[in-house]
């Protein structure tokens, strides 16, 4: 962590969070990178910043010669290592605990630096991008995907789910983070030293439309509203009471069983080339 900087991870590492993150795949979360054929199995060295439980990391290893991954939570690093073993890519993957602000690599080490839903939790996302750019080779690409929480909508509408969106965003802001990071990506990348002409920004949607998808998402937030770091922080900052968080939990559980339920949101996705 950068000296003097206090980071608070809004989600935390409750099982309801980590298990949800473990459902992520390279094919779904890094499609904007993979479809460009930038990664080459026989040559590309990639850094995955904020790897979480490692399912995306293991997936990216199928497309690269070597993948280095890091997270700032030692217990999550161990889970990511176990995932690489489970996916039979441990020979191509190296995982360690480290800060995004002080990457433990020499200048111009990587062909690609990838990060997924990380900048939204940082006090200084521009400093993180500067550090990612430092370890990137000239001609290499930083690939970033970030959600925009303002865009998160459900059908049928539920009053306490709408309250959840407001409270979650307020809690992130109290953590000095930016929950709508997706829309900031080009601005931040330019501040970090990337030329505007070297930035390829796009937006995509994530949707949960099947009964199984809605149940998984709703049940995850049913638990998070009561037991995750977000719940504790929301109460500490005065953004929600215990009773309000209980209503959020109940509404998420009820929504997950509603006929025709769906949930969707927008991600910003940027490929930033180091010139």
Automatic annotation (TrEMBL):
GO BP annotations listed: methylation
Any one GO molecular-function label of the UniProt entry: S-adenosylmethionine-dependent methyltransferase activity
Domain Methyltransferase type: residue ranges: 47-143
Keyword line: Methyltransferase, Transferase
Alphabetical list of InterPro entries matching this protein: Methyltransf_11, SAM-dependent_MTases_sf
PANTHER family: 2-METHOXY-6-POLYPRENYL-1,4-BENZOQUINOL METHYLASE, MITOCHONDRIAL, METHYLTRANSFERASE
Name of this protein: Sterol 24-C-methyltransferase
Species, as recorded: Hondaea fermentalgiana
